[in-house]
Structure formats: structure tokens, C-alpha cells
Amino acid sequence: MAVLVAAYGPEARADFENAIASALRARGIAASTTYTTISINQAARDKAAALKEIGSVDAVLVVRPADRLSMSAFTISPGNSGESLQPWQNWFDYFSAKGAFAGSPAGMGGMNEIGIHAALYEAPSGRLLWSATTVQRVSGSEGSAQAVATGIVRRLAAAALIK
Asked: Does some domain include residue 74?
């Protein structure tokens, strides 16, 4: 599984991708980061080229930390496979400048909370397998990536997508 975080700040992107991939590997998933192989702009422009750069994977987990008050992403429940959606239909939404995570997690909203949108796509078909939208409480910029990673992995396990 490749992990792709829609963050324009390279340090934030690396922190989040490393934490999520590490949490997935702790569950026995062969997870890799993408921040060293593909830019956010490249991912937004051409999904097919992005997949080639990412390499051979069975799935891509796309994560967008966002303002907790503007959470408008759709949610696919565990019982809904998303088969009615076109392949990669909402991929670009995760990479828009408006939606990408650009600042400190603690600065995204009051009370140290950030919104999180996560979507799991089958690769290379692009079929949406799962998505979730949540507000994650964080303790400030230190440890935020780990808190988000733990929450995402817990939701993937609850949806029976990972053990």
C-alpha cells in the first residue's frame, strides 16, 4: 500500500506519511511513503503518471488533513464498496490548494483539532474501496502525525480492510 498525503509543506507531508506507513507496517501491511517519488502537483495533474511513479502497489491510501470546519468530503461506509463511483473520481479533491494541508496542525483550528479525510483506492483500477472523514484531536505539532496515523489505522481495521 502506498501512502500519499496531500500536504504542500514537505516536512508535514513527510511526517504524516512516515507515521501512517509505520503504523500500517506495525499491522503487517507492506506500506511505503510517496513523498520522495512524486510531488503533490504531479499527483494532481496526472493520476496515471502518479501511479507509475509510485510503483507496483495493490492500493493507495490518500490522506488530506484539512480545516475541521470545512469538511465536505463524501464518506463511504464499510458496507458500501463505492462501485458506483468512477475510478479515481474524487482523487483531485484531495490535492486542491484549498484542501491541502499547508500549516501546523495545531493552527488549523481551535482546541488542537484538525479535520482528516482519508480514502483507500484499489490500484491500478482506481476503484474507491473506503473513505472516512473525522475530526482528530491532536496535542499540537509534536505527535500530531502519530495521532492521525493511529486514528486512520484504527478506522481501517474497524472497516475490516486490515488486521
From this structure: yes
